[in-house]
Amino acid sequence: xxxxxxxxxxxxxxxxxxxxxxxxxxxxxxxxxxxxxxxxxxxxxxxxxxxxxxxxxxxxxxxxxxxxxxxxxxxxxxxxxxxxxxxxxxxxxxxxxxxxxxxxxxxxxxxxxxxxxxxxxxxxxxxxxxxxxxxxxxxxxxxxxxxxxxxxxxxxxxxxxxxxxxxxxxxxxxxxxxxxxxxxxxxxxxxxxxxxxxxxxxxxxxxxxxxxxxxxxxxxxxxxxxxxxxxxxxxxxxxxxxxxxxxxxxxxxxxxxxxxxxxxxxxxxxxxxxxxxxxxxxxxxxxxxxxxxxxxxxxxxxxxxxxxxxxxxxxxxxxxxxxxxxxxxxxxxxxxxxxxxxxxxxxxxxxxxxxxxxxxxxxxxxxxxxxxxxxxxxxxxxxxxxxx
Amino acid sequence: xxxxxxxxxxxxxxxxxxxxxxxxxxxxxxxxxxxxxxxxxxxxxxxxxxxxxxxxxxxxxxxxxxxxxxxxxxxxxxxxxxxxxxxxxxxxxxxxxxxxxxxxxxxxxxxxxxxxxxxxxxxxxxxxxxxxxxxxxxxxxxxxxxxxxxxxxxxxxxxxxxxxxxxxxxxxxxxxxxxxxxxxxxxxxxxxxxxxxxxxxxxxxxxxxxxxxxxxxxxxxxxxxxxxxxxxxxxxxxxxxxxxxxxxxxxxxxxxxxxxxxxxxxxxxxxxxxxxxxxxxxxxxxxxxxxxxxxxxxxxxxxxxxxxxxxxxxxxxxxxxxxxxxxxxxxxxxxxxxxxxxxxxxxxxxxxxxxxxxxxxxxxxxxxxxxxxxxxxxxxxxxxxxxx
Lengths: 388, 388
Description:
- By secondary structure, the first copy, chain A, is of the alpha/beta class.
- Chain A folds into two domains: 4-122 and 212-235, Thiolase/Chalcone synthase (Peroxisomal Thiolase, Chain A, domain 1); 128-210 and 237-386, 3-Layer(aba) Sandwich (Peroxisomal Thiolase, Chain A, domain 1).
- Chain A has twelve helices and twelve strands.
- Chain A has helices at 22-37, 62-69, 86-99, 121-129, 143-158, 162-176, 190-195, 255-268, 285-294, 303-308, 325-328, 333-348; strands at residues 4-11, 46-50, 77-80, 105-112, 198-200, 203-204, 214-222, 234-243, 277-279, 319-320, 362-372, 375-386.
- In chain A, the strands form two sheets. The first copy, chain A, has a ten-stranded mixed β-sheet, sandwiched between helices. In chain A, strands 5-6 form a two-stranded antiparallel ribbon.
- In chain A, helix 1 crosses helix 2, helix 3 (86-99) packs across helix 12 and helix 6 (162-176) packs across helix 9.
- Chain A is globular.
- The mean pLDDT of chain A is 92.
- At the A-B interface, helix 2, strand 3, helix 3, helix 4 and strand 8 of A face helix 2, strand 3, helix 3, helix 4 and strand 8 of B.
């Protein structure tokens, strides 16, 4: 397998960016990533853009349009739509293209505009769910319902408490308060979470990630050509991707994560004990608890205690969502995955200021998308390593 | 470069398939392709689905949903949206994944539902155009306008006649009348075309491809593992992809095709004189005339005479659109590219009955998508070869 390095990252702030259209956000992220890499637009040989094109101003071929504005054109450009995992999928396809040996340098971009009013709210909500619209979405089986069912089951089976679940929001909003690019930058208390507006028991509104606008980009290359660029490189040890198997079992949304993590650890020759920090898909507080277990950071059933005891804090066993995660940093679908990569790369470079994870050498990302019949439609997971 | 073979193809009929939803169409195409290959669902290691998700019943993750119904699950599945070229893009990504050596067997699917009423007709039309919605689409600069402008320029510069342009429709509808899977299966006369309802001068309604429903699928593998399957294989000599450079020059929509063709010929070590048949993107009659020239089948400016003199007929120098092309076979966006591959594979296998191109050994596909500032957003081109 070819060794691939990330040499540049860039992203907009995530949030309600009413002054930005899709293309302006994409351009800012691409500009920053190229600048960070010390790369010219003409250095890019292949490109991928992850987006579910939710914004009403999103044109077809948004990747072509945004990249052309930045001088990247003529090369193969592929737009990818894979629900909330679209952006990580784009990064993974870029990595796969470099594996082919036919290309040496790639750029992956993710962008989404979610806060503008959409002309067809039902379509938007159904699609946002990433559910099977015909079988589940039409019956109102949207994400909060799915994750609240999973949470209730976890509470019943393992004694996980409502307070433990809420602690994920407290941790991630605290981390977000240290991240100038986060959608929410204000700490919340346990009481704030427990007393916030109910959505779907046990989840309240502060247990749910916001709807955000944003864009993020990543420049990747074969390690053999990395000397062309000046950005501090980070090694990609693994790039795993799995879709669901839909076993209709009791493990709501967990199996795909476990299989993707297994692939990532095997590819990297590493285990969960090696991970210093992880950006995981905390679309809901409870989801993060599930991910601790499925990524192997703690035993099955112990996720609630893991967060309660501070093991997921910056400075804990594994710093989970040091960026603020989807809950505080925000969740602009296509941009979420490349945004996670931005955080891990900057952490491994030691550039994260107040939220820096001390001595971080190995970081992981976990980005999911869609659900159906009790399983996730797509999970992409990367393991990145600081160069010696 | 790894040698890749196509071992199975399948497709629905294209047309107004009111009794089919997106997933039923996709399932039929996948089933047929697996059966043709003699492959099991579990043989597939990676999958791509090309669709612009135009149908109002199209869920997110349509590839995952349709493939799961056919028993293909758990593997990486990526949904690709690249305007009218989405499906060929999916086939090309599958080929690229096989080039990485990390996967041996892949399936690429394309599907689109266009004939159902869409809740937001303006959005649909704007997106259908594949234009830059903000700069061009909003001003009504939809595909018929783009291609009629190009046609008028060609007529003025090269003396191409209205009748020569109309002959493309006569040829392709004749070919379509021999194809039981075509949307339109009735021959038309030159007078029919010239007297049909005007759309945008010089193009009448019979100069425009229809809006169709349909799905098509392709099973690809490394030549080194092809003995696992029983489908008569076809060799992929080239898989080229380019995006536009948007030079704002006089060559409306032509430059991307020329650059993709150059890449395809170089990769195959072949030239236009070697091509026995070609499925090209005849979204409008005039477009096909342009493609003859840009793919090198005749000199620049001689496309009108090329069709008039019968060189593009079955039995001519290059049989162009033996399937009926987009004009008669139909144009269900995501399915169009894999549909072209279906035709070329079946022609090289000698399985095309009344429309069989005698002695066909080398076939080409050309699938474009989107336009902007006088250039095409994406062109994908394959060159396929009959095995000795």
